[in-house]
Write a structure and sequence with these properties.
With 272 residues, this protein is an all-alpha fold. The chain is built from 12 helices and no strands. 33% of the residues are buried.
Amino acid sequence: MNSSAPGHRQLSLTEWLILFVAILGFAFDTYELLMLPLIARPALAELLRVDPATASGNAAILKWTGYMLWGSAVSGGVFGLIGGWLTDRFGRKRVLVWSIFLYALSPLAAAFCQSAEALLILRCTTFIGVCVEFVAAVAWLAELFPDPRQREKVLGFTQAFSSFGGLMVAGAYYLAVTYGQHWPAIHSGHAPWRYTLISGLVPAIPLMFLLPLLPESPAWKERRAAGTLKRPSIAQLFQPAFRRTTIATAILFACAYGAAFGAIQMTPQIVP
């Protein structure tokens, strides 16, 4: 990052703050996504008022777990597709910040829900925030670091922290299980799944203080001021020159994300 190669320079304090926010966002993307496999079974057992040890109770929990997984994935996917339009319409920074607030506040609200339906809705809004944040963060970083080599390093460096999200949420759940009985009661109980959901609020706390220091994308501001901010048609990706690459890339990324997050989220069902 501090390379002395031609065209490279040391990062300013503001740029390091930008990287910190991006790292926070990418790490908690995974954190929020992988929260569900940990809390789904105990949460649904409590909210549905069923005994997971019985056949009927287990069936009800599996059915609602399916609703949670598919409902949130579809919601996030749809809004992820329009994330580019949102960032063009409202700005990279604004969409990034509000999407982080969305996926940080949704788990907080979910921690106090008293029905499976409410938990489902709030998991959907969490996924929407995660998917939109990813789109906004990549666009924001790409335009704030216009030098190609530095941009590649910045995007690779910040997204690498996504892997830590799973480790952090596992640690948070462990702490909730181990020490939750000593924490303030929620709805007259000390359910670890509720405390784990509350921990999803963490990324919003530093963001509130850093928000005034974060710049908007200069490229976006210039194009908007000049009236040249116009998104290309998605149909251009399927023109003869790009069609094969577009289809192959879409399939590869769908398989990669499907295998990674699908397998990880189903691990509690696969490994008892």
